[in-house]
Amino acid sequence: MVLKIAAAILVKNNLILIAKRKSTDRVAPGKWEFPGGKIEAGETPEECVKRELKEELGIDVSVSSLFAQSTHCYEGFGTIQLLTYWTEWTGGQLLPAVHDQVRFTLRHELDRYDFAPADIPIVEKLIGTNLKYLT
After folding, report:
1. What pLDDT is attached to residue 130?
2. Is the pTM value of this prediction over 0.70?
């Protein structure tokens, strides 16, 4: 069985939001990721992104198009399919609840961070693509 995860590519002032998993997390401890979480039964990926960013970061977002997806099998956990969506911050105050750190970074600096394996193909696509969302 594949666990489906939806995450945000949130760009603000040409910076991309990333989050560092807690060192005690079961999967990819201490690794950086795009914030998001498990898609619940009856929930669309877009609804999941909105819910997870509200729960985990205290912010409201609007979700637009799918950016990219990847699949990775984590040893001792199983396979996840990561769906990433372009999002826009629409309200709330950034108050991280489940990450060790959150930060905004430049696109060309993403490869300086130790990302979770499922997020690496997303990082590579962000770095290598001429994106209308980033100038």
Report:
1. 56
2. yes
